[in-house]
């Protein structure tokens, strides 16, 4: 299987730092801002951002995990039902600036579902999107990230793989690989 490195561990750390500085510039003291990691993989990115924001700015930014499984447009179309992840939001988002955090933006379907799911916690004042990787030319929905680590051009036959040392990989890395062809 052919793999191409998109971001290595050092580049991911630089990207997380850049995200934190952009958030500090755009959200002042975070009084009216919350961060939501999209389950399952956006939560890993969110945790790194929240930890680094605390180190850089000293702010404890309200954050939580949002699962949008039951709001997906393909939820009832699968042979095997999707397994939901935990939503952990212990605050209302009414009139707040919400930053949705995910690892890879592909078709835009997860983001659309997440926007539906978060309405259960109030009507946000503004919603922004932050992703490590933006697969530019693959959208089914008109979704554009406000913050992105890297934009990549990919084919439908390719997959963006995000590996985290915390999940047993040798180091943090993001790769583009060819999808396995099933015979």
From TrEMBL:
Phosphoribosyltransferase domain segment(s): 7-163
Domain of life: Bacteria
SUPFAM superfamilies documented for this protein: PRTase-like
GO MF, one annotated term: uracil phosphoribosyltransferase activity
Class of enzymatic activity (EC top level): transferase
Gene3D superfamilies listed in its UniProt record: 3.40.50.2020
Annotated EC: 2.4.2.9
Keyword annotations: Glycosyltransferase, Transferase
Pfam families given in the database record: Pribosyltran
Descriptive protein name: Bifunctional pyr operon transcriptional regulator/uracil phosphoribosyltransferase PyrR
Naturally occurring in which organism (per UniProt): Echinicola arenosa
Native organism taxonomy: Bacteria, Pseudomonadati, Bacteroidota, Cytophagia, Cytophagales
Protein encoded by which gene: pyrR
